[in-house]
Design a protein that fits this description.
Elements lengths: L1 E7 L2 H4 L6 H16 L3 E6 L7 E6 L2 E6 L9 E8 L3 H19 L7 E5 L11
Length: 128
């Protein structure tokens, strides 16, 4: 089963400030181990929304909206794709990742990770 770990923006990441070097080192080491173990398939960070564009459709119109966008806590700042046996295993990895943030940054750190299963064509095929 594949799951996407969606890391929400912080006010610092949305402002374009680089992450704490200690956190970057810990994240890099964790990612290296997870890729070598065959669990993490791909990962990436996203540029602040001021560099982004949204394209909306509605009422017969296509509209382009240039960033920055709304509230930073609701925006995606990064992601990782995991190949694991179950949702429970994905949750364990997610908890481990966020615990690492808290350990490195201290008890005042605030962050959020969302875990969503990636569905493929087989999940939408008609059942016999």
């Amino acid at each position: 089963m594949r799951f996407m770990m969606i890391v929400k923006c912080t006010t610092d990441s949305e402002a374009g400030r680089p992450p704490d070097p200690r956190l970057m080192a810990a994240t890099h080491e964790s990612a290296k181990e997870l890729v070598q173990a065959g669990v993490m398939v791909f990962t990436g960070a996203l540029a602040p929304t001021r560099a982004g564009v949204r394209i909306q459709v509605g009422d017969g119109q296509l509209t382009q909206i240039d960033g920055p966008f709304a509230e930073a806590t609701e925006l995606v700042g990064g992601f990782a794709i995991f190949e694991v046996a179950s949702k429970e295993e994905a949750i364990q990895y997610g908890r481990r990742y966020m615990a690492m943030h808290q350990e490195v940054m201290g008890p005042t750190y605030h962050g959020q990770l969302e875990i969503r299963q990636i569905l493929g064509p087989e999940d939408f095929a008609p059942r016999p």
